[in-house]
């Protein structure tokens, strides 16, 4: 793709997602994702009802009357986006592919972060770490992230969630807020999820296509696995075949949902055919 086409795409995503983060998520992101702790602001005279544990004894001794320390929420966060760039992301039977929806969600979260003066970083992953973008602030940094979201070509098309969670836990030393964005078609990752969720505030965003969940009855269908290139022919008119396909999805979804629930990680599932804005608003309100 030519540079002019890439810049046009970046601009389109910027206009849409920046508008969403400004007009829809203003304030909700702030309350949903708190700062790391409390920072000292000032001292003031003690008032009845104040917590005596906040008394500043040095200032109190100097003025011969009680003063307390006042603290404010330390708002600045580091936000990490853990983005699945494996082969299954190119799949989409509705208006958008999973990769397109993931790109818009990630860009919206990135703009929400910088509006709150937070740093934003990204880890692209497949079954290995494909690219690490260190957390920074600023619009220029966001546009660079959007460009990478649009144009990045992974070396591998397979998926391993454990791989990115282990890397993330090791490379980001201080506690941060992280969004793990994937369809979660991956080997089991409960152990690494548990470790990462204890260290960081982790949120899971599942992006899936309706045809991931069930096969349509359209007769003989040629199917290609986008992560392995395996080709097979499936008789979708066979009710048993459709049931096996659906049962496989349901079982995997049950395991994924249970893992997030057990580790205390908030999760929201978003279909490529639905409005991801509503899903994000619901998530933000739930965490507020």
In short:
This protein has 288 residues and is of the alpha/beta class. It is 43% helix and 24% strand.
Features of this protein?
single chain, 288 residues, alpha/beta, 6-stranded mixed sheet, two-stranded antiparallel sheet, 10 helices, 43% helix
What can you see in these coordinates?
With 288 residues, the chain is of the alpha/beta class. 43% of the residues lie in helices and 24% in strands. It is built from ten helices and ten strands. It has helices spanning 3-23, 28-32, 57-63, 98-115, 139-151, 161-171, 190-199, 210-213, 239-262, 276-287, and strands at residues 37-45, 67-74, 78-84, 119-125, 129-136, 177-182, 201-208, 220-224, 231-235, 266-271. The strands form three sheets. Strands 5-4-3-6-7-10 form a six-stranded mixed sheet, sandwiched between helices. Strand 6 (177-182), helix 7 (190-199) and strand 7 (201-208) form a beta-alpha-beta unit. It is elongated and about 90 Å long.
Sequence-ordered SSE layout with sheet pairings:
Layout: H1 3-23, H2 28-32, E1 37-45, H3 57-63, E2 67-74, E3 78-84, H4 98-115, E4 119-125, E5 129-136, H5 139-151, H6 161-171, E6 177-182, H7 190-199, E7 201-208, H8 210-213, E8 220-224, E9 231-235, H9 239-262, E10 266-271, H10 276-287
Shape: elongated
Round the mean pLDDT to the nearest integer and report it. Answer: 86
Give the beta-strand count. Answer: 10
Biggest sheet features: 6 strands, mixed
β-strand percent reads 15-25%
Distance N to C terminus: 42 Å
Overall SS class: alpha/beta
- SSE order in H/E notation? HHEHEEHEEHHEHEHEEHEH
Low-pLDDT runs: none
Arrangement of strands in the largest sheet: 5-4-3-6-7-10
Instruction: Give the helix tally.
Output: 10
Q: Rg from C-alpha positions?
A: 23 Å
**Approximate helicity band:** 40-55%
